[in-house]
Amino acid sequence: TVDGAGNMTIEFSEGTFTFKDGFVLERSGIRLVGKGRATVFERSEDATSVGSLLVAEGDRICIEGITFNDTGDNSAACIEVTGDKCAVKDCIFLDCYSAIDLNGASGAVVSGNYIDATRSTGNVIHVKGGSSDGIVSGNICEQSGTTEFIYFDGATLRFVIIGNQSFSVGRDFSYDGADGHVASGNVGTVDVR
């Protein structure tokens, strides 16, 4: 559906949607909505791309209620967000290299996501590239071999980090204390650099 302002909502029914390669949302104002565990986005076994399964380049993109299963041989996050005022909410990550990268995104919201397993030795949620003025809240990481659950590079500014829970990572939350981040109510080890 398209509203009066030109924003588009695409609702996915129950089922598994298999993509040979990743895809890029370049248009602003798109909302992808699934039905939680019943809507699965996966990369096919014969995929040729090694980048993110979904890249949000446009502004005001919302990815909500979709399960991601990216067992392919790649070293990218399932979702990469580069647009401003985007949101990744209530998604489930079953098997992927890492879950979410915010790369230069301003005003992003990453909330209520459940990460079951990742294969990266780096970060589950990585905030980088000058991302600023966002919220990372209510995310849960069940198991992972990563160094950090949520990691903020030194060039990121003014994020609210609240109510996230980690059950198996080393340094669970890592950020630079001089960059204006505010953290509260997180469960796990906090590393303020």
What keywords describe this structure?
193 residues, mainly beta, 13-stranded parallel beta sheet, 8-stranded parallel beta sheet
Summed up, what is this model?
It is built from no helices and 21 strands.
The tally of helices reads 0
The amount of beta strand, in percent, is over 45%
SSE topology string: EEEEEEEEEEEEEEEEEEEEE
Q: How many β strands by DSSP?
A: 21
**Biggest β-sheet description:** 13 strands, parallel
**N-to-C CA distance:** 45 Å
State the share of residues found in helices, binned by percent: under 10%
List low-pLDDT spans. Answer: none
Task: Supply the helix-strand structural class.
Answer: mainly beta
Shape: globular
Blueprint of the fold:
Layout lengths: L7 E4 L3 E5 L3 E3 L4 E14 L10 E3 L5 E8 L7 E5 L5 E3 L2 E4 L2 E6 L5 E3 L2 E5 L4 E6 L6 E3 L2 E5 L3 E5 L7 E3 L2 E2 L4 E5 L6 E3 L5 E3 L1
Could you characterize what this model shows?
With 193 residues, this protein is mainly beta. Helices cover 0% and strands 51% of the residues. It has no helices and 21 strands. It has strands at residues 8-11, 15-19, 23-25, 30-43, 54-56, 62-69, 77-81, 87-89, 92-95, 98-103, 109-111, 114-118, 123-128, 135-137, 140-144, 148-152, 160-162, 165-166, 171-175, 182-184, 190-192. Strands 1, 2, 4, 6, 8, 9, 11, 12, 14, 15, 17, 18 and 20 form a 13-stranded parallel beta sheet that branches. It is globular and about 40 Å long. The model has no long low-confidence stretch (mean pLDDT 89).
